[in-house]
Amino acid sequence: MRLFVSIDLPDSLTESVEAAQERFADAEGLRFTDPSQAHVTMKFLGDTDEDRLEDIDEALEAAIAAADVDPYDATVGGFGVFPSIEYISVVWAGVRDDGGAAKTTTLAEAIERETVERGFDPEDHSFTPHVTIARMDDARGKDHVQRVVREEDPDLGTFHVEEVRLKQSTLTNDGPRYETVRRYPLD
Fold this sequence. Notes:
It is an enzyme of class 3 (hydrolase). Hydrolyzes RNA 2',3'-cyclic phosphodiester to an RNA 2'-phosphomonoester. The chain is an alpha+beta fold and 187 residues long. It has a domain at 2-42 and 69-103 and 125-164: Cyclic Phosphodiesterase, Chain: A (Alpha-Beta Complex), CATH 3.90.1140.10. It has helices spanning 14-22, 53-67, 97-117, 142-151, and strands at 2-8, 30-32, 39-47, 72-83, 88-95, 130-136, 155-161, 163-172, 175-185. The strands form two sheets. Strands 2-6-5-4-7 form a five-stranded antiparallel sheet.
């Protein structure tokens, strides 16, 4: 099973994600994510044997308890890229600093600690709370992406975070398909 932990955006923000993607519509070389599957990846676990689900349960329950984060509101807005504005592979909208970023980061750091403690690979980069909206396959549209990222700062909306989810990702010819395996409430 190819697994990751996420905070899923509600269906009510799907149109906002689509509108954000439209700002990049003229950029060649971009592959847009499915707005209906928009989420904040908290931890990528990768290919995982099904018999490790108990370890994951324990890790996520311990992480939520350690983070001590009650349900909260998160605001998605603004644009950014990974790894840098000069070499773009991912285009994203962030969780705003004044809109839940600190709580999302606290939760992600606790998930990282607890999963690594149980033998999962550590992340090789620091956590940035974001929603991936596109991947850049080649640099043809780089100038357009750079301009939009530097000049535009849209709000995509605010939503209430009540849980994290363990998701299974199945790669298909039409892109990845995500399915919720388990839910872990914050309260």
